[in-house]
């Protein structure tokens, strides 16, 4: 196999493919990138068995300037190969595999010889039977991921909670994630009222997918029995396994009663929480306190080891009972970041019940929930 290609186009493809490469894979071959050259296309594939990404570069792509001299295939070490390509001096790169599994890489005045592996030992992409075929704006999918993936569990002892639960039906798409300490749920209208789906996508897959969504406008989503496939334009396909099991009913976790409410700008509150967290992170408990009494609201943190901070916040509106509640500032900061510069309403029931954060202009379709910390 031998080809010449624009180096920057190859770097973009390698950056995407490397999102699926893991140094911890049980199969050594998966630390490699698979390159297959046909008569008119270069196909690059990366996989860690949970995530697989394939991208194609055509000879008809004027930017790629792909010239194919001979077809074939080779598996090359992902990190080493990518680092070489990024540091080469020329605008174009030529890669040739003529004997065994040795690759010669030439660009400008630089020349590398690296050892590869037999491409036939690389696992094939999963062959799946598609049950549903959906379309979603890439910007919308990226926003849904950003607003929910923060709440997935990091504990592998609760595997079902390490994913985001997507439920499609009745003209609505709902995405929900929880680690039992916090919850994030986003609902949006879906044009295809007949479409249905109920899947749990690993959070790590969604984080990698989100990083690729800026380059496309529309995503085609194909759902199979144990896989979900995201087609990012005509040339790139992202495969992810699905989590198996029954996701907890998130609606039961969301309180319906609010005895105290606070309306405030999310960014301003985030800045206050950031300052209080400077002290709480130095202490043992990492807890800050919210005191609401009449029109006066105070954020404070008290650490016997370090000191104390207290700051009054100026809410647009406060209503209901006086309340003192403690919570993890990191959970609160993660939640507030999803609202940007929006006005939000925080709803409390009691000091021991989870409290909700919703945008005032979209309170029924987006909710963050945080469980308070008991300090006694």
From TrEMBL:
DNA polymerase III beta sliding clamp N-terminal domain residues: 1-126
Record's subcellular location: Cytoplasm
A Gene Ontology molecular function term of the record: DNA-directed DNA polymerase activity
Alphabetized UniProt keyword annotations: Cytoplasm, DNA replication, DNA-binding, DNA-directed DNA polymerase, Nucleotidyltransferase, Transferase
GO cellular component terms listed in the entry, alphabetical order: cytoplasm; DNA polymerase III complex
Residues in the signal sequence: none
GO biological processes: DNA strand elongation involved in DNA replication
Primary location group: cytoplasm
Keyword DNA-binding set for record: yes
Domain DNA polymerase III beta sliding clamp central: 136-249
Residue ranges constituting the DNA polymerase III beta sliding clamp C-terminal domain according to the UniProt record: 252-373
Transmembrane segment boundaries: none
Oligomeric form and interacting partners: Forms a ring-shaped head-to-tail homodimer around DNA.
Family: Belongs to the beta sliding clamp family.
PANTHER family linked to this entry: BETA SLIDING CLAMP (PTHR30478:SF0), DNA POLYMERASE III SUBUNIT BETA (PTHR30478)
Protein name listed in UniProt: Beta sliding clamp
Organism: Weissella kandleri
Species classification: Bacteria, Bacillati, Bacillota, Bacilli, Lactobacillales
């Amino acid at each position: 196999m031998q080809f010449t290609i624009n180096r920057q186009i190859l770097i973009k493809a390698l950056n995407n493919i490397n999102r699926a490469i893991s140094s911890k894979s049980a199969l050594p071959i998966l630390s490699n990138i698979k390159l297959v050259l046909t008569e008119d296309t270069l196909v690059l594939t990366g996989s860690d068995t949970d995530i697989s990404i394939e991208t194609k570069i055509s000879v008809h792509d004027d930017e790629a300037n792909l010239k194919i001299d001979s077809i074939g295939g080779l598996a090359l070490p992902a990190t080493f190969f990518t680092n070489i390509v990024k540091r080469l001096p020329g605008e174009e790169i030529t890669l040739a595999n003529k004997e065994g599994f040795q690759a010669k890489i030439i660009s400008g005045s630089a020349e590398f010889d690296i050892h590869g592996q037999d491409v036939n030992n690389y696992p094939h992409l999963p062959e799946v039977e598609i049950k549903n075929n959906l379309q979603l704006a890439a910007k919308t999918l990226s926003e849904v991921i950003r607003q929910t993936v923060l709440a997935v569990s990091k504990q592998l002892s609760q595997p079902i909670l390490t994913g985001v639960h997507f439920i499609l039906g009745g003209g609505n798409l709902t995405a929900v994630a929880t680690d039992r300490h916090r919850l994030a749920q986003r609902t949006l209208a879906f044009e295809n009222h007949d479409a249905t789906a109920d899947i749990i996508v690993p959070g790590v897959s969604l984080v990698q997918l989100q990083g690729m969504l800026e380059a496309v406008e529309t995503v085609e989503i194909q759902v199979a029995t144990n896989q979900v496939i995201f087609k990012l334009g005509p040339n790139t396909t992202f495969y992810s396994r699905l989590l198996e099991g029954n996701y907890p009913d998130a609606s039961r976790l969301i309180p319906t009663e609010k005895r105290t409410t606070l309306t405030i700008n999310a960014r301003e509150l985030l800045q206050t929480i950031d300052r209080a967290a400077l002290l709480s992170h130095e202490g043992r408990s990492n807890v800050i306190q919210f005191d609401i009494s009449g029109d006066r609201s105070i954020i404070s943190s008290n650490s016997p080891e370090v000191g104390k901070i207290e700051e009054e916040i100026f809410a647009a509106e406060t209503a209901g009972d006086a309340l003192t509640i403690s919570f993890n500032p990191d959970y609160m900061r993660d939640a507030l970041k999803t609202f940007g510069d929006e006005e939000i309403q925080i709803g409390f029931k009691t000091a021991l019940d989870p409290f909700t954060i919703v945008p005032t202009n979209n309170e029924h379709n987006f909710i963050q929930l945080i469980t308070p910390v008991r300090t006694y």
